[in-house]
User: Fold this.
Amino acid sequence: MVVTNQGPATMRKVQVDVFDEEGNSLAPGATALWPPMPFAYLHVGQSLYLKLERSAGHLRPARADLAWRDRRWRKQSREIWLSYNRVV
Assistant:
């Protein structure tokens, strides 16, 4: 997964959590999101490349929740539905 800050301010304390098709977080246990969260800063125009490690026994990732702080007084957040194509 790639998170890109499209500005206008630096994103601070960037937190990403990934959920499977049943709404369970993939963060605990045998799965890992690299680099570890929270990520300190993401400057305007900078991208954060995330690697999700999981086993075949886990359900497919379906949703990512992204949260961060910037110049606004409230914490910002977005829910992103994931899709992928498998080429065999």
Summary: Residues 15 and 40 are 9 Å apart (CA to CA). The radius of gyration is 14 Å. Residues 2-81 form a domain with the Immunoglobulin-like fold (CATH 2.60.40). The first strand starts at residue 2 and ends at 4.
